[in-house]
Amino acid sequence: MSHETSGRPPAGGQEIIHHVPRRVKRGRPRPRLSLNATAMIDVVFLLLVYFLVATNFRMGEEVYRLDLPERGAAVEADPFQLDESPLRVRVISTGEQRGTYRLSLEEPFPTPASFDDLFHFLQQRQRTPGSGGGLFTPDHPIIIDPSPQTRWEHAMGAFNAAARARYTNITFSEGGSG
Amino acid sequence: MSQVFKRGSAAVESNLTPMIDVTFLLIIFFVLVSRIVDIERVDLALPQPEDPASMKVGDEPRAVINIMPGPDGGAEAYRLGTRSYAPDEAGLEAMVGRLAEQYRANPDLHVTLRADHRTEYRAIAPAMQAVSRAASRSGRDDALARLNLAIMRDERGGGGAP
User: Fold this and answer.
1) Which residues of B are less than 8 Å from A176 in CB distance?
2) In chain A, where are the structural domains located?
3) A54 CB near a chain B CB, below 8 Å?
4) A5, pLDDT greater than 60
5) What is the CATH class of A87-172?
6) Order of strands, edge to edge, in the sheet holding A142-146?
7) Nearest to A61 among B23, B73, B152 (CB)
8) Do A152 and B162 make contact, defined as CB atoms within 8 angstroms?
9) CA B120, CA B108: separation in Å to the nearest integer?
C-alpha cells in the first residue's frame, strides 16, 4: 500500500487529505524524559541505615531455660531413687535499689551476703566427677523461693547465681514464701 | 578524527535499577522484622544480672508473654502475642486456654517470659503457673512447659537499671 498521491485532483473535484506516514513522524527528535534518582537514593539509604542501627540496639536480650513441672500430671515414682531434699534459696527485696536484697538458705548452711557469695557457696559444694568431695550433684534440685514482694531482678539474680555454678535443676517456688 | 569529536565525550552511565531494587527489598525486610519484633518485645526494662549465665534465644517455636508493669510492683496486664489479658482469675484462665491451643498445635513450644525488673514476684508466679497449666490442658503427652526467662545482657559489665 502506498501513501503517495498524484498532484492532480481526482475527477470528482474532491480535495485529498494527505496522510503523513508514521515512519516520517518517528524520525523527528523526541524530548528525552529522565528521572533524577539521586534524592530518592539518598532517602532510601538513610532509611536502610536507620533500620540497621535500630535492629542492632535490641541484640542484648538473652534467656535462661527453665522446665516447669506439669501441674496435675501424674508422676511415677522411682522406688530406687534416693529422696534428694531440694536446696531452698529464699530471696527478699529490702529496698528499691539493685543491691537491696537479703538471701537465706536452710540450716545448717550459712547465709550468703550477696549473689556472688551464693554462687561461690554453690560452686564449692558441687560434686564433680573428678573430685571426691562435694555435697550436691549438678542436677540437685534448687528452688529459688522469692517472697511475693520480691522484685524480679532479685529473683533472677539468685537464679543466675545457681545457673552460673552449673546447676541444671533450678526452679522457682509456686507462690512465693510469705 | 572529525567524526570522533562530533560525537563528543562518551557518557559514563550506571544502571541504578538493580541497586534500588535490592535496597528497597532490604528496607522492606527490616521494616517487617522490626514490626514483628516490636509485637513480641514490648519495651520493658528487663533484669540485668551480673555475669549472666544465660544463652541466646534458639530457633525453636515460641510464644512470648510480656508482663506489663502496673503500679506498686504488680501487673497491669499479661500480653500473649498481640492480646492482653487482665491480671485476674478470668484473664489468666483465658490466657491458659489460648496457650493450650498453641501447645496442641506445637508441643515443642517454648514460652518466653518477659518482665520488668521492678515487677514483684506475686505478679510473675501466676504467669508461670499459667504456662504449666496450659501444657497440661493441651492433652498432648509430649507438650512440656518449657520456659525462657528473658534478661538483658549488660555488655558494659554491670551498672544496669537502678
Assistant:
1) 121-122, 125
2) 87-172
3) yes
4) no
5) alpha beta
6) A101-105, A87-93, A142-146, A170-172
7) B152
8) no
9) 29
> Is the Cβ pair A98, B121 closer than 8 Å?
no
C-alpha cell at B145: 512447659
Handedness of CA A65, A156, B88, B82 (dihedral sign): negative
Q: For residue B69, name the pLDDT band (cuts at 50, 70, 90).
A: very high
Per CB-CB distance under 8 Å, the chain B contacts of A71 are: 129, 132-133, 136
How many Å apart are CA B135 and CA A21, to the nearest integer? 80
Which ipTM did the prediction report? 0.75
* Residue B140 contacts A where some CB pair is shorter than 8 Å: no
B5, pLDDT greater than 70: no
φ, ψ of residue B69 in degrees (nearest 5): -70, 135
Class of domain B62-149: alpha beta
Mean pLDDT of A43-62: 75
**Residues A15-35: what's their mean pLDDT?**
66
